[in-house]
Amino acid sequence: VLESQGCSAQDWSLVKVAEDFEPSRVKNVQFVGRVNICRLAGEIKAASGLMKPAGIYNATIADCTIGDDVRICNVGVHISNYEIGPGACIENVGKMETSAGALFGNGVEVAAVNEAGGREVIIFNELSVQFAYLMCLHRYRPKLIKRLAEIAKKEAEKVRADCGKVGEGSQIFSATEIIDVNIGRCAIVNGAACLINGTILSSAEAVTTVGANVSAEDFIIAEGSLVTDAVNLKKVFVGQGCQVGKQFSAENSLFFANCEAFHGEACSIFAGPYTVTHHKSTLLIACLY
User: Fold this and answer.
1) For position 127, what pLDDT does the model report?
2) What φ, ψ does residue 151 adopt, rounded to 5°?
3) What pLDDT shows up at residue 139?
4) pLDDT at 217 over 90
5) Where is 199: in which H helix or E strand?
6) N or C: fewer beta carbons within 10 Å in the chain?
7) Quick one: which of 223, 284, 198, 200 has its CA closest to 249?
8) Angle between helices 142-157 and 129-137 (to 10 degrees)
9) Could you give the 3-state DSSP secondary structure of residue 174?
10) Contact (CB, 8 A) for 57 and 73
């Protein structure tokens, strides 16, 4: 039935489906490697708010596990090495893939406060502002810094995997390229340009949104944050409840809870909770706020 609907596989014996699998919901799909498909039933809310049927349409799927009631439609290149949670919706995506041993932004050293280096903070999913402050500003205590680095690296290793994750109920629309990125539960990625080596933490209670034309590399974005409007991030940690937008650009910087950053630029800054910058002429370099 799948072949009659335009589907193909390198090896059909590597494609596993649930007992109640409905082949009518899979059309024009190429399977590569090991693919596991759970139940596909019901409808999913798409970006426009329309309810669309769950299923897999017009895509290449390689070495993936697809949860219950997922919708995947119009994938330009492929989705490779991902575990896609129940109820997720992925539409009009160019490429999604995970490479072996990915750390998803964890373990990246961010050169905060001094753009020449020397006060690096190792970022990881559970990084707090207190931990980062000690690691950045207590360099005169080498034993402490060594121990903090060991803790950070150990936390980073916890997420190392060969397969990325798309959380339950997450929505990914019109994204060009997503490589080595973990996407949390109920997160929204809508129109992002390029996301490489990062984590988007999210939950049903604190949904994280990454919006139009965002480019981010070596990053972690925490729960409840909004990053949109052509923001450019490189080696950046964005804490919980932050808003970053309106073409803001940041490199080697840390933003903690409830910060807001619009229009300007940041290089090697440590932005403590509730730091706000909102001006096109603002260039923040090597500062602590």
Assistant:
1) 98
2) -65, -45
3) 96
4) yes
5) strand 194-200
6) N
7) 284
8) 140
9) coil
10) yes
